[in-house]
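Researcher: Please translate sequence to structure tokens.
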Amino acid sequence: MINVLRVHFTRDKNGLWALTPCPQLPLAPGMTEVSQTDLPNVYELMEELLSYGAETLLFLETEENRVMVQELLCLLRRQYPEQHWERQPLQEDPAEVDDSALWNGTRAFLTGLYPGGTEGAAAKHIFTEEITDEVLQGLGTCTALNHTLFHLSPAAPTEGTAERTGYLAANHARITGGEGVFRFSINGGEAEKSVAICPYHTYRPTSLPEEYVTFDTREDFEALQEDLAAYAASGVPSPVRLWKPDFVGACRLMGRGNCCVETLSRFRLAGKTIRPCPGSSYSPGTLDDPFFRTAVRARREKHRTAEHRHCTDCPAADRCSRCMALPDYLGEEEFCALMRDERNFPDLFRSLLAVKLLVLSHAVNDPCRLRTAVPDCGILAAPRGGQLCLRPGSFLFAEGDERFLLFSMATGRVFQVSRNFFFLSELAARGYRVDELMTQLPAEAVQDQSAWEQGFATAVCKLREYAMME
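Model: Translation complete:
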């Protein structure tokens, strides 16, 4: 029998609430605790907690979750007065209490790139230009899920306007400002930050720590194509707008598994119309429709779109996002041609994210001297077998002629290597065998053939040890 059910709310990597164990407090005899992500609506969550049959519900209260716990207890007292509950303050190290999860969720909403993919609870993030009783009622009947509601509010809220949506586990992010700089204020000031957002073709670096570029016009899209083509030819990530700001709607360029339409992980409200992609007019339904029907309709329409485009037979099937919510200026044929391009734009785009990570981690001294050698921008020919041997998210960078780096996004590790090791690693990454090695070396190296072959074998071994090669 469970005497005490311990409930501990924390934020997940998307800035949303989850129930997690509390490692700093050991469980006493007769006590158990809940571990659950993708929380349902408030009433279903309460029924799930009560289904454990515990005599007492013990809520661990922290500085971060205090408002959340208070809201839940209000419901508990009103709907289930017979249930005994207790609240235990939990002292946390101030260094551990931060708002990074909230901002990770904001970034995921803007870019469409969710940590760990888009699987899980639908409607993680919702954007609207107005909050009305009708909208809130629609959200309550349509989703009522753990979410963040982004509200573009040019003017200050009128007296009596709630800073939160009123639904359990929901965050309210109020957006104010304009002319390229917007202020995000989450939950009435729990977290605040200024963010620069501007069209790609007009981007200029700012002093703000977070910058985003949009692709709302054909001019933005063509400027990006031109920059990516130059990057593919030279390996030099220039101009700076290629890697410094985050891309709004980056999910369209990032390859398979990043589309939010199927899961409705995020959507924009135009009145009561649901638009899963902020940059597209596509809509699978409205707030008046049952949410499960809207989600099923979106999945079916995406499947039909894939059949119409012959996606399963496409040579780019493994790297394409299969985006069905294209902007008005981008047709299906042009999008498919872009994904099939031999320069492999999704891989190039991932390498630009790697450049950004290296710069932010100070692993690179001078970004202007950086060159991407792999995946596709090297001094060698294209991959020998037509396909790189490196694992996805593995890259080789050269900073001038002095520093050579191997970087794995999967492990987050950077390795500085010698010039010769880097050269041999690039050969290995492009599929060359040891018996073909000498054809790629200068004539004077023939006399040291055994040493080069041994070095090549070492490079392959190390790449596998670094989890960068199968």
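Researcher: Any highlights?
Model: Residues 201 and 220 are 5 Å apart (CA to CA).
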